[in-house]
Predict the 3D structure of the following.
Amino acid sequence: MFRLIRPLNSPMTTPIVTRFAPSPTGHLHIGGARTALFCWAYARRIWAEGGEGRFLLRIEDTDQARSSEDAARGILEDLAWLGIAWDDGPEFGGEGVACGGDSRGVGPFHQSQRRAIYDAQFARLIEAGLAYPAFDTPEELATRRKAAEKEKRSFIYRQPNDFDLAAALDRAKIEPHVLRFKMRAEPITVRDEVLGEVTFPYEELDDLVIRKADGFPTYHFAVVVDDALMGVTHVLRGQEHLNNTPRHIALQRALGFETPGYAHMPLIFNIDGTKMSKRDKDKAAKKATRDAGIESVSALVGRFDPSRGREHADALSALSDDDLRTWLKDKQRQLGRDQVGAIAAALDLRLPEIDVEDFRASGYLPEVLNNYLALLGWNPGMKNEDGTDLERFDMDFLAGHFSLERIGKSNSKFDRDKLLSFNADTIQHGMNDDGFAAGWLAWAGRFDQELAAWAAADASRWAFAASAAKPRARTLADARGAIAFALVADDGFSYDDKSVKKHLLKGEPRGIDVLPDLQAALGLVGDWTPGSLEAAIADFAESQGLGMGQVAQPLRVALTGAAVSPPLGLSLAIIGRDATLARLDRCVAFGHEAS
RNA sequence: GGCCCCAUCGUCUAGCCAGGUCCAGGACACCAGGUUUUCAUCCUGGUAACGCGGGUUCGAAUCCCGCUGGGGUCACCA
């Protein structure tokens, strides 16, 4: 246990520090979010035990070609939105939180700003004879790798026997080169909190590159130096890093650093077993476009509702028909994020969510995402009072109960159905109407401008819309569906055939014949609120000697075009008095034509 | 292919470390009923798993070995 290494109850001990270290090459991947969540939870858990735990965020931007400041900012936002706040790291304010800072003086937290630190460590290694320049070209190395593959063995780079360090150092002054670490001839055992002890033979550990030709450290070097200098005591990361760990340990030993505790977590895959990749979205869009038989940009643009989709059309404007055809043919080729989004909108396609931002746009709640993510690879192992397993919990619970020993060893598949079920349950049963109304509105402001505009046009109806949508919404995005009837013009919807036949033209009396009197009754309602309206409709049914169904269903058809809507009082309140009466007029006229 | 990791219902998992109370429990999904003016909820019930083969033991989902299967990794990416 870690506690043996660093007693928590001893005063003035250095804190337990976990870190999340994304490379800013895109949005925060859902798998990365889980890693961050576990790191956060572990640090928080330390407090519950009376120690000091800190969660540190570091930006690994040593890949000059692929890193961007925008991406870094986006990742910070995603983490903040999830409520995964970091103690040490880039300062950030937004999403209702403020986090980051450098109270321990271990920054900066962008690796690109730590060149001098790495250089000093490189010098130590060279001086100790543990690092040496290498001049092999990428082509040479590729050739040797291929040869190794042919002989069915691992390719291992070793310093040549006749290597002359002094000469190489001289040559390095004028020739491009990389710096390699001289691996000691011994096996290395990783003590992992999840997997136990894993030993790697020396024969599998080669002299890895620690400084690239551009002078930047490689990931392996930077991570070891930064973790040590930032006081990181526990490294929680994905299992894909297990094979890197012995190299990191070798580096730590050479540099005289302590080896932190390690916990390698199982990986997350799609339900079909494939990797959850950003490419999934592109793939889905490509397949849908092909299936729809679309071969031109104009065919796509033509599918947008003219009143909406302006932004999407703009996103596609940069795309030529040739581009589109090339993309369709070439499996490897990918379109931009906005373009893929536009195509999905045109084809009414739901793209698979991969990044945290995707889930946010789809209307998932951050606390639900955290809850579901925590269950992927970890389990509290506790029961509810009714004997069912405890699996619904919040961040406070995680902060109080998370433990490394309950992290599973096997990979898991991301089950969107279960996440959706959790999300729906939280919206429908875990939020009050006001909270939902506010959250939904904030979401719409960012992801559904049209809905936000509708809300702003008459603020008084938003509360009704929210209380109608909440019990029917599985996500904030599909909440719109429950009140979509109110978003269209009074003459902007058509009547569903089946509903018309069943509820307007059949029965005794026929629905269509009930509506005029009902309209008159509604016209007399002074207080246009759900309660009064509901009562007025019930009174009307009773006075006419009709069952509720004989009144309610024709009315629904008249107001929405079909027989499905939220409770009538709410529906009418959302639609409004004028529109309600107008829609009844239109329906009666339509009904007479149809009969 | 080399090296490394893993293996309970379709999926996430509890149970495994301290073998019997497990002909394996929960959740999601699915199926069948029921409540409800529609929809959505909600309630009840059901189908469904210890990968295979050897050991150890009175007894194995639980311990050991092999096989099979899945995954990771083999970059001047992180």
Notes: The first strand of chain A starts at residue 16 and ends at 20. Residues 30-48 of chain A form the longest helix (19 residues).
